[in-house]
User: Fold this.
Amino acid sequence: MKIIKPFSTKIDLNKEILIPCDTLTTRKLSDMKGYFYDEKAYDKALTKEDSIVYEVYDRTVPQEEGQLAQSITVIHPGKVGNEYYMTKGHFHAIVGTAEVYLCLKGKGYILLQSPQNEVSLIEMKPGIICYTPPYWAHRSINTGKEEFIFFVVYPAHAGHDYKTIEEKGFLKVVVEKNKKPALIKNPKIPNS
Ligand code: M6P
Ligand code: ZN
Assistant:
């Protein structure tokens, strides 16, 4: 394993960003084709504006076993149709790796799905820590009117396997129903 120097990172508690930040990944609506269930609503939203859905601020460490990756994700408020803005969601490429989320600001959910198709929904608000056990796919969803911001730690060698979610989606989706968040069957997947 690579020996690296100890380092510290500050979370700017006013801006909720990492200082320093090594890489910033920005996901816009155009990066998320196929992820929202309502394709017509997606096309309409994209025609109007290619809005930023979320940003991931990373500290970079070697992507090898023993190292821990740390990042902050900011999901902006918004919806495509009635489905709230969310991350793409992924399994870890090294499936036996976990992840810890700490909510800093806003509100939302972590949606999890096991390889046996069990679905779990963890409600997030500032101070709540979500433990994502190994093997579960995970996606974060902003159900609030402000930014939903959380700090994450996971094994640096975990890797992101997007393929399964991109092709099949999650079995359930979080939508606004009667002005409140609701977990419903994914309309794109028959018998989900
Ligand atoms: C969290 C972590 C990151 C992930 C990010 C965005 O911060 O799980 O590893 O990259 O959310 O999620 P996704 O990669 O699924 O778009
Ligand atoms: Zn992950």
Summary: The pocket of zinc ion (ligand 2) is lined by residues 90, 92, 99, 138, 154 (CB under 6 Å). Residues 112 and 118 are 8 Å apart (CA to CA). The mean pLDDT is 95.
